[in-house]
Design goal:
alpha+beta, Rossmann fold, 5-stranded mixed β-sheet, about 20% strand
């Protein structure tokens, strides 16, 4: 753990006290390895200030703490970044037409500039770093980017991190366009936290960065597309499960490689991309292996009213998908409500529906919403690499997924 903490400090080029002190906010459960590393071990290594958020931070007060503390580095799990994304979109949507136009203009500028700052390739296009941002970028920064960062309490932050699960493309792209490049981290408790880290120097859109120096990576039994099980080796790998020799031998092979159970690929520049979990792979009746995550993410990106999507079809003749709609959430319990949120209502109005609740859409089998969803499913199917990977049936569930409900 201490070796990993030192590696993280070097990768992010963190400041050491007393010359300068990093500031972090602790709000995730400390049973979480990412929280342990970023809130305890790394701050001990560099002598950082640690501020502990209120117990109800995940219910909406986190931003208040961030505004007060102004951290220099911030780790957010995907759901935190998604909530910030939704809040910004809601605020902009309720603003004047002029403000919305300025926001969109600034995002276009921000996306172009930040994509040019990424080394290697970005979205498949070879680019070079831009060292002298244009006047339009400086204007966008003054009019939009700085204000957004101030509103989130991230105006002093220079390191933006996402971990624990893949960050969806829409959210990652949204923040990149607002001058907030979120670097994803891949790792596990068994590897003391990070195995690969994405930084401003080693950043590629939707990747988990590059393998930490001193660690090794192997893709076990890769497919023809280069996708295999991610295996880890290095000082960050744990010794084994306490008093569980069989489980330890299953996880760590004779050569010392830790088998993660995750699927991924490495590109020709050494960037790691996570593609799913071995246990999540759907094997159809026809024997074709289907990774559900890319299809589920594409459905959510294509159909804005969709909150969660779950692909099913193991040993079946075709794929089906379970869908939930974006709803308001009880701020006290975190339970999803029946009422649609502002984004879902906006979607309904755009397709000609007057629905305001999930019940209305289901009970009346709202034709406008169903037609729009089917159109989105058709668009997703057009991108399928084979007929076996096309969605044949879909259904809307009565309630969105939640932690309290046991789905998340």
């Amino acid at each position: 753990i201490t070796w990993t903490a030192g590696s993280v400090a070097r990768v992010y080029n963190l400041a050491y006290a007393p010359e300068k002190q990093e500031v972090v906010v602790s709000y995730l459960p400390l049973s979480h390895i990412a929280a342990q590393m970023m809130d305890v071990w790394v701050p001990i290594k560099v002598g950082a200030f640690i501020y502990f958020a209120e117990p109800d931070a995940l219910k909406g007060t986190l931003v208040n703490t961030l505004q007060e503390v102004k951290p220099t580095a911030f780790l957010g799990v995907p759901r935190i970044w998604e909530k910030m994304h939704e809040k910004i979109k809601e605020t902009v949507d309720k603003s004047s037409s002029l403000r919305r136009k300025v926001f969109l203009w600034a995002r276009n500028i921000g996306f172009k500039v930040n994509s040019k700052r990424t080394p290697g390739t970005f979205l498949g296009i070879h680019v070079h770093r831009e060292r002298d941002p244009s006047m339009s970028y400086r204007m966008a920064k003054a009019l939009v980017f700085t204000k957004i960062k101030n509103s989130l309490g991230l105006d002093h932050c220079r390191i933006f991190i996402s971990g624990a699960a893949p960050l969806n493309k829409e959210t990652s792209e949204f923040f990149l366009s607002l001058d907030i490049p979120i670097g994803e981290v891949y790792g596990m408790s068994e590897s003391s936290g990070p195995h690969s880290i994405s930084t401003s120097e080693n950043y590629k859109f939707l990747s988990s960065g590059k393998i930490v120096a001193g660690c090794k990576n192997m893709l076990y039994q890769p497919s023809k597309d280069g996708v295999g099980e991610i295996c880890l080796w290095g000082r960050h790998v744990f010794m084994g499960y306490l008093e569980q020799e069989d489980a330890t031998m299953e996880a760590i092979d004779k050569e010392g490689w830790l088998h993660s159970g995750d699927l991924g690929r490495l590109d020709n520049q050494g960037f790691l991309f996570i593609t799913g979990r071995i246990k999540e792979i759907i094997i159809t009746a026809g024997g074709e292996n289907v990774a559900p995550l890319p299809i589920e993410n594409l459905v959510k990106e294509t159909i804005p009213i969709i909150s969660n999507a779950m692909l099913v079809g193991d040993k079946a003749k075709f794929l089906s998908i379970l869908l939930t709609l974006k709803c308001d959430v009880d701020k006290m319990t975190g339970e999803p409500l029946d009422t649609l949120n502002w984004e879902a209502i906006k979607f309904c109005r755009e397709v000609g529906s007057q629905a305001t609740t999930v019940s209305e859409i289901l009970d009346l089998r709202d034709p406008m919403v169903h037609m729009a969803i089917q159109k989105g499913i058709n668009a997703v199917n057009q991108k399928a690499i084979s007929n076996a990977q096309k969605i044949q049936k879909w259904v809307i569930l009565e309630k969105d997924f939640s932690i309290s409900g046991g789905e998340l």
